[in-house]
Structures are given as C-alpha cells and as structure tokens.
Amino acid sequence: MFFDFSSAFSNIQPILLKDKLDCTGLDHHLTTWILNYLTNRPQYRNCLQISAGITKELVVDFRRAKHSPPVPVNIQGMDIEIVRSYKYLGVHLNKLDWTDNTAALYKKGQSRLHLLRRLRSFGVQGALLRTFFDAVVASAIFYGVVCWGSSISTADRKRLNKIIKKSSSVLGCHLDPVEVVGDRRMRTKFKHMLKNLSHPMYHSLEALGSSFSARLLHPRG
Predict the structure, then answer these.
(1) How much is the pLDDT for 190?
(2) DSSP line for the chain
(3) What pLDDT digit, counting tens, does each position of 99-125 carry?
(4) What angle do CA 170, 175, 178 make, to 5 degrees?
C-alpha cells in the first residue's frame, strides 16, 4: 500500500527533522538553515491526512493458480485503486519484475544520449563531455541500480548496456556495463552500512558473520 498524505511537507515537525539530520552528519550550518526555513511557516499543522484518491495498492501474489482479484481496501469511503505498477522514489515497482523500470530508464537514457551526441557535434569533447555523461546520462541509467542491478533479466540488462556501448562510442573510451557498476555500488553501499552503527540493517548484517562480509567486500576475481 502506497499512502499519499495531503500537504505532507507542511506537516513536517522541524525539531524532529533537525535531530534526524544531525544523526546523518549533515553540516550544522545547512541543518540550521533548513530549520529556520521550516519554523513558523503559516501553513504548519501537526496532523496528517490520507489522500485516498491518490493512495494506491500494489498486490504481489506469487501463487501459480489464478485467483479472483482481492477486494479493494476502502479508506474514507473510497475504494483504493489496485495498480500493476507503481513509481516509488523514482523506481518503478511491478511485483519485483523490473521490466517497467528498465523501460523507463531506457527511454530516459536514449533521450539523454541524444544530448550527448549533440554536444559532441558542437565540438565538446574530452573531460567536459565525460562530465556531462556522468551527470546527465549515467545518472539516469544507473538510478537505483543497487535495488535492481542484481535481479533484472538478461534482456533488460542488454537493453541498458546498448546505451552504455553507444555512449562509449561517443566518448571514445571504455565504460563499465550495468552489472559491473551495480556490483561496485552495492559493495560501496554495504561498506557504508557496516560503518554506520545507526543504520537499521547494521546489526542484521553484523550477525551474518565475518565470512559473509568478506565475500561481499572482497569478491573473487
């Protein structure tokens, strides 16, 4: 269930947000600026209201036998819409099948690859062109790769790698494929989680044992 709250931004409690930002190690001056911006806002309220019309439900059912559709959840007298795919924090979820997400990334990557080619046609090259690729093209292709990088289908991986190969041709240099980038970012994320004692998964990962940690941090090959 993906809940939508009306005017959620206006309901932020500045003091609670400041404590959470301090825990993340955010610069003190930036935290103070955010707190000052949110304090005493005229629309500030201390309550949240569910927006039933925008709230969606995604049903994940791995049973092989077909079953009748579930009865919709009713909130505030309104049946919540059941969807087959939902975009959450920029990642398209579809019963743990990443086809919809890949299609969205591929479409966005194609349009940004066009901009990369246009820049090269204007004489832009070298480090500047690579910076544009990293900031505009790669940021789109690899968005959320830690979530889906290890579980997308071979066909989806090939689609994204086509864009990378074309970008490599434009730049005139080697670019790592999706699987390499995903693995590298996963290991980097894992290291950060092990160093962050306040991370929700820290104790779970630590309990898995040093041998498990070693295999992830120092894979063979």
Answers:
(1) 85
(2) -B--EETTGGG--HHHHHHHHHHTT--HHHHHHHHHHHTT-TT--S--EE-TTT-EEE-----SS--PPPPPPEETTEEPEEES-EEETTEEESTT--HHHHHHHHHHHHHHHHHHHHHHHTT--HHHHHHHIIIIIIHHHTTTHHHHTTTS-HHHHHHHHHHHHHHHHHHTS----HHHHHHHHHHHHHHHHHH-TTSTTHHHHHHT-HHHHHHHHS---
(3) 999 999 999 999 999 999 999 999 999
(4) 120
Q: Per this entry, what is the length of the chain?
A: 221
pTM tops 0.85: no
What distance, in Å, lies between the first and last C-alpha atoms of the chain?
41
Unique residue bearing structure tokens 């194609």? 110
Can you say how many angstroms the Cα of residue 7 is from the centroid of all Cα atoms in its chain? 23
Integer CA distances (angstroms), 178 to 39, 112, 140, 221, in order: 43, 17, 12, 17
Please report how many Cα atoms fall inside a 13 Å half-sphere around the Cα of residue 81, on the Cβ side: 11
Q: What is the pLDDT of residue 191?
A: 84
Asked whether the beta carbons of 5 and 53 are under 8 A apart, the reply is no
Tokens describing residue 169 = 């041709």
